């Protein structure tokens, strides 16, 4: 039986595709595998007292390993057949670490702050080693970023062991993360963009409404009240699924009531998806869920093709629907629901990569206001019947961290339990433990 939280979510109406569309998220019966014995993941820790104004953390720093390899770290057990649950979470929990100061990493032998190859100081994080292998996997980088929202890509790149060779560009590492996320149908939690990307619009169509509402890309098996976690091969193809041993509301537990899922950003992305699907049907491109991808470039969102076209993209007004460009349509939603752009977890100091120039914004504002007054009722139904809520206020530091020896950081993943059959069930909340007795 689903929990009250899960039931409240599943009672929401969420429309992924417009009427008459052949959906892309039809899932075949999963191939169930026996879960192999795996070491449990440790709970994430800060590694210092958050209340003590710690500015430096001393650590014994070994020399860089040979062959540009990395050092051991607390999550070495991560593997394609042993994926951490946090990797399958779609929308991030409220950030309880946002106001926790990040100390610098100090070499205990020399007393000097560790720096990268350009002299920038390296910040301390408990779960990251000083030296990271140059061929670090996308899934490991994604896990490091998700376990602590304060971590930025620069914290990983600063630790790369390049040996005597040149450092690859940041896109090399970002593409590894992108390819891994695509293999498990999870969007980025920190896009830094205002406008929904082509990948976001497509990926929401690959998930079921149950997955979106329960905030996970794991398969939802409501009949057996469980979540199924994929087991990947080395090429990131899916070999089958195992019982995740998690309550189906696991990825909702740290949200306040009422649960802000679907998020404003998801709803805006879905409305753009509906608009593009409607346009594809009007153009006779078929009723496939992704038929909009064959629209002429001038009828696709301009920001999707700016880099490919060198910034010279001609965009048409969609006269058939509302006489707005796609950008004006989304900007109208962002103006109405400004929290939509910030719903994803933003890294400290990160700037939006998708910002309209100030002069362009000022030039478009009067035009948009006039068009919004004139536009007729939208031809696209709302993505969900729940009201889009404003963004929650910044979360205070969790009081359980403000002690000399803080407990593991409560990011919604708590301790594991062992059932009489000897199986280990990771991160089960107290209220759900009776289900596993």
Outline of the structure:
The protein is of the alpha+beta class and 437 residues long. The protein contains 10 helices and 7 strands. A hairpin with a 5-residue loop joins strand 6 (417-418) and strand 7.
Structure description:
A hairpin with a 5-residue loop joins β4 and β5. The chain is built from 10 helices and 7 strands. The C terminus is likely disordered. The relative contact order is 0.17. The strands form 3 sheets. The protein has a 3-stranded antiparallel sheet, with no helix packed on it. Strands 1-2 form a two-stranded parallel ribbon. The protein is globular. The two termini are 15 Å apart. It is α+β, with helices and mostly antiparallel strands and 437 residues long.
Set out the fold topology.
Blueprint: H1 4-10, E1 56-59, E2 104-107, H2 138-147, H3 153-157, H4 170-183, H5 198-204, H6 209-213, E3 219-221, E4 226-232, E5 238-243, H7 264-282, H8 302-305, H9 326-336, H10 358-374, E6 417-418, E7 424-425
Parallel strand pairs: 1-2
Antiparallel strand pairs: 3-4, 4-5, 6-7
Helix pairs in contact: 2-4, 5-7
Region (Disordered): 340-380
Biased composition (Low complexity): 355-380
> Roughly what percent helix?
10-25%
Please list the strands of the largest sheet in the order they lie side by side. Answer: 3-4-5
Number of strands: 7
Strand content: 5-15%
Ends: how far apart? Answer: 15 Å
Our Rg estimate from Cα atoms comes to 23 Å
**Biggest sheet overview:** 3 strands, antiparallel
Uncertain segments are 341-346, 348-392, 407-416, 424-437
Mean pLDDT: 83
Strand-and-helix sequence, N→C? HEEHHHHHEEEHHHHEE
Query: What structural class do you assign from the helix and strand content?
Result: alpha+beta
> What is the overall silhouette?
globular
Tally of DSSP helical segments: 10
